[in-house]
Design a protein that fits this description.
The protein is α+β, with helices and mostly antiparallel strands and 233 residues long. The chain folds into 2 domains: 40 residues, no CATH class; 167 residues, 3-Layer(aba) Sandwich (Glutaredoxin), CATH 3.40.30. 58% of the residues lie in helices and 11% in strands. The chain is built from 11 helices and 5 strands. The chain has a 5-stranded mixed beta sheet, sandwiched between helices. α6 runs antiparallel to α7 and α6 packs across α9. The longest helix has 20 residues. The chain starts with 6 loop residues before the first helix and ends with a helix.
């Protein structure tokens, strides 16, 4: 998510600060301390914008937290009973999601109490939705993690690679295709879109843990810090 979408709100707050300082000056009570401080310390602007972004994201997140952290049955990595939950919105056609697989695996190894809820968010290619449906069908059969790893390992998403990943994961493809044809996973995919839009997620990968929303391939260290913060909160 680009920080530009937050710019109007941040500018309103900034203009309000300047307006207050101007009134201070006009009334003869002093100079323009806000302006002087910002000119002397311009680095506080991105810091303040980051705080503002986090506050607004948290306000949207909290009413949906329980729903976000409740996975589609079986679509979970790590400790399914973990006390710290990391939610990932992902697309099998996403290069950055694929690059993040090893980092998520390492975070799971480092944090035995970590539950990773995978939310399929197929937005990139015409085959993304087909891969997402097969992933949920694999979850239905208790094969989600195996399919998740195998699908990303394929590199490209196509009808052939989806079937190859499903076969490698031990998915009963006939049963899976039957469930897909019956539309058993459409409500889940639609709900994932609703949740993403409600909290301002527009791309993959996106991460939610504790009070933090992280967008993009932010790296293992950044996610690890957010996990630690969530555990200590």
């Amino acid at each position: 998510m680009s920080s530009m979408r937050w710019l109007p709100t941040a500018l309103i707050a900034l203009v309000a600060g300047f307006a207050g300082a101007a009134l201070w000056s006009i009334s003869g009570l002093g100079g323009n301390p806000t302006r002087d401080y910002l000119l002397a310390n311009p680095e506080v602007l991105p810091e303040a914008m980051n705080v503002l972004q986090q506050r607004e994201a948290l306000a949207r997140l909290e009413p949906l937290r329980d729903e976000l952290e409740q996975p589609f049955p079986g679509a979970v990595l790590g400790n399914p009973n973990g006390t710290v939950t990391l939610v990932e919105f992902t697309d099998y056609a996403c290069t950055y999601c694929r690059q993040s697989v090893a980092e998520v695996n390492a975070l799971i190894a480092d944090n035995p109490d970590l539950k990773v809820v995978i939310r399929e968010y197929p937005i990139l290619t015409e085959h993304s939705a087909a891969a997402a449906r097969m992933a949920l069908a694999a979850a239905q059969q208790g094969k989600f993690e195996a399919f998740h790893q195998a699908m990303f390992a394929q590199g490209q998403v196509s009808e052939e690679t989806i079937l190859a990943a499903a076969s490698e994961a031990g998915v009963n493809i006939e049963l899976a295709q039957g469930a897909i044809d019956l539309g058993q996973f459409e409500a889940q995919l639609q709900n994932n879109v609703f949740l993403a839009q409600s909290i301002g997620i527009t791309g993959t990968p996106s991460w939610i843990v504790g009070s933090r929303t992280l967008n993009g391939a932010v790296g293992r260290e950044a996610i690890g810090r957010a996990i630690a913060e969530a555990r200590d909160s």
